[in-house]
Amino acid sequence: xxxxxxxxxxxxxxxxxxxxxxxxxxxxxxxxxxxxxxxxxxxxxxxxxxxxxxxxxxxxxxxxxxxxxxxxxxxxxxxxxxxxxxxxxxxxxxxxxxxxxxxxxxxxxxxxxxxxxxxxxxx
Length: 123
Description:
Blueprint: E1 4-9, E2 26-31, E3 35-42, E4 45-50, E5 59-65, H1 82-92, E6 99-101, E7 116-122
Parallel strand pairs: 1-6
Antiparallel strand pairs: 1-2, 3-4, 4-5, 5-7
């Protein structure tokens, strides 16, 4: 298992979300040893619960989209939990490695669309 999961956020500033910021763009590293649970709370978000001594920093919420720029467009997720499964796969990938990238594939629309991470908040 890798020591960190890498989440690459694109165009957060124009995502239309209240937490959006240009400073969120780029790579975010999550320490695998601190992850307690990965949950897909809705069809549009993933929540990562962390074991943290700082209560204000124990939850990460990341938002996927089928667009790289502009407002977030929630991917079609008709069966299963696509985003949670991608993160769980990253948790078990790259044994003995330092970093495992969590890259989203395609959604479950009739004409599948590529998915991107668009927002990353820690609270």
